[in-house]
Amino acid sequence: MKQVYASSRSLRHAGILIIAAHLLLFLLLLLAFILDRRPLTTFLYLPLLLLSPLNWFGIYFFVRHSEQVTLTADQIIWQRFKRTRHVPYSAVTGYQERDYHLPPNLVLFTREGKLRLNRRLENFPDLYHTLRQRVPALRETEQPQFPWQLRLQPRFLWSQAIIALLLIVGFGALSWLVSDSETRWEAFLVLEILVGVMLLTALLLEMRGPASVRLTPDTIKVSHFWRSPQIWDAQSMVDIRLNRSLTLIRGVERIMYDVEICFDDGRLLVMDEQRCWAFGYDPSRLRDHLRRLYLSPGADSARRPAQERADDLIRQADHCRQQQDYLQAVAAYAEAIRLFPPYHVYRLVVADIYYDVGQYQEAAANYAALVQLSPDHDQAWYGLGLCQMQLGQMDEAAAAFDHVIELDAGNAQAHYAAAMAYTLLHNEKQGRRYLLRALDLKPEWRSSARQDALLQSYFA
Fold it and tell me: Domain limits of the chain?
């Protein structure tokens, strides 16, 4: 089975936009010079616009984000335009986690040379994880030991400096080109000052994150550039996970994976993806190292008895549920979650039990608690919406179903439930839209929908 990973369209379009902007500016300046009857020597400066660092940066961005990687059962197929390379997994002899290019690459070394895989490929974390499973040379060799120190890598600082230099040179050349000879120095200085202020602001924002993290068996010390260090109690840690989010990086939409360390008091220690890379680690790899240090069976022997007791309670709760002894089942699930907080996913089972017996307030409370801990849990959002409908909270129910659809656009049940919620809110336009989508996904529901007293009017 082939797995295909394409370049980010938004990043490729960003490169095209930079090139197009330079071409448009070139044509506008050419027209202005002709109408203004400038001397012929003035026109000789125009080609410099197309040779500016910013334009080359746009071309570079377009080329870099025009590649595709395909993984088959036994090899990597790399393609860019009409150029193709085939690299068997067994031919990889080593790797470099992250090189100095902008944007960076995962570099695979072979006997014939190097294969660079753009880290801005769509769904790159899945590609990276698959390669680590299939390529022997990529399997984990580093085993961090306490005390472990995470520091900013020199290449992170160099990459920021290179971006700043490109902006300064590019805007400086632009101001020099478009201004008159009499005002050229003034325009150059004003524009460079503005760029300098922008870069200083960006640098200060970049330095909001941690400068270093020191990990010991008992504490996690997070040092910042400007603030006092933070000390976290490692003994109260309950989970270490990746949080998937959509964000804007320099105006380009990207999926980010942040490392979240969860503590039993509900607090989170977050290291965003950019900071993980600045420390020199892929977020998933950093998460695995932290789990190995703090949450593996041998990491904390005091943690095992609590989990074992929680496992016993889960088995007891499952048995009680099969026997329809729901009160005992709920009590056992709740105690298991208290003993071992990573079992918070069992709140879904507790909420389902409450919903089935008609205790909608208690069910809603458990669904809500679960979505607080796992915001992307579509089943919990759907259950919460159903409870809110039963409790007459139609606005909240409609919002919950909308959230389910954002997480899973193919969820026919959520579309159908959203149609009912919006109909009860007298928003027939939204109700009709959701109902039609639900019936597109599940055509066999059409006859039952026609018989539904609430939805009949849409078939009139």
Answer: 3-138, 143-297
Separation of alpha carbons 48 and 169, rounded Å: 12
Q: Is there a contact between 122 and 5 (Cβ–Cβ < 8 Å)?
A: yes
- pTM exceeds 0.70 for this model: no
CATH code for the domain defined by 143-297: 2.30.29.30
Per-residue model confidence (pLDDT) at position 12: 79
Q: How many CA atoms lie within 13 A of 330 on its CB side?
A: 16
The more confidently predicted of residues 102 and 93 is 93
> At 339, is the secondary structure helix, strand, or coil?
helix
Matching fold, domains 3-138 and 143-297:
yes
3-138 to CATH, choices 2.60.40.10, 2.30.29.30, 2.40.37.20, 3.40.109.10: 2.30.29.30
pLDDT in tens, 340-353: 777 888 899 999 99
Mean pLDDT of 193-221: 70
Annotate 215-236 with DSSP letters as a single string: E-SSEEEEEESSSPPEEEEGGG
> Rg for the chain (alpha carbons), in Å?
28
- Reported as a single tens digit per residue, the pLDDT across 376-424 is 888 999 999 999 999 999 999 999 999 999 888 888 898 999 989 998 8
